[in-house]
Amino acid sequence: MATDRESKLASDLTRLAPAAEPRPVPAEQPSPGAYGARVNLTMSPEMKRDLELARIEDRIELTSRIRAMITLWLTDPGYRAAVDELAAQMR
């Protein structure tokens, strides 16, 4: 019969054990051949830091996140208007 200490230790070890291997997110899968064009992007160190911190949290690569933002800009008129207004202010 396990003591309280042994039971707590076993519980802690179970809780701290590595989780099952997560399934890959789209950013970790091979890129489709459709991305043949490259664009240089300059940003503030704070923007880069925030994007890298988001990557650490959710494992979505910076380039995938930016492609998603561009896709929203192309497909969502409200998002496009907000981005265009902010871009005009940031010139």
Characterise the protein shown here:
- With 91 residues, this protein is an all-alpha fold.
- It has a domain at 41-91.
- Helix content is 60%, strand content 0%.
- It has helices at 4-16, 45-58, 62-75, 77-90.
- Helix 3 (62-75) packs across helix 4 (77-90).
Can you give keywords for this protein?
91 residues, mainly alpha, 4 helices
What composes the largest sheet?
none
Helix proportion range: 55-70%
Instruction: Report the principal-axis shape.
Output: elongated
Low-confidence stretches: none
Q: What order do the SSEs take from the amino end to the carboxyl end, as H and E?
A: HHHH
Q: Provide a count of the helices.
A: 4
Which structural class do the helices and strands define? Answer: mainly alpha
Proportion of residues in β-strands: under 5%
Describe the structure concisely:
With 91 residues, this protein is mostly helical.
Annotate the secondary structure layout:
Blueprint: H1 4-16, H2 45-58, H3 62-75, H4 77-90
